[in-house]
Amino acid sequence: MSASVGPRGGPRPPTAPPSMPELPDLSHLTEEERKIIMAVMVRQREEEAKEQQAMIKEEKPIQAKTVNLVGNKKPPQQNDIS
Q: Would residue 44 count as lying in a domain?
């Protein structure tokens, strides 16, 4: 049995990063331990958001520049006839 690898001959299209999974069962922890874990999870979400924003800012379009040639010289014609 073979696994699906996306379109033949090309990479898979980018996918959205997985969202934060539902909260794990923290009922067996103390209140202090729960607060610590929740703070870590909040920081993780914030860091992921910062990384995503940084990636969006880096994706700037390439701007073409116009070049004006000096003079009216044309390149020499080449004959392909031998």
A: yes
User: pTM for the whole thing?
Assistant: 0.43
> Which range marks the domain in which residue 41 is found?
27-58
- The Cα–Cα gap between 74 and 71 comes to 9
Please state the domain count of the chain. 1
DSSP class of residue 57 equals H
pLDDT digits (tens, 9 = 90+) for 11-62: 565 555 555 557 788 899 999 999 999 999 999 999 999 998 888 777 767 7
Contacts of 9 (CB under 8 A, 6+ apart): none
CA 37 to chain CA centroid, nearest Å: 28
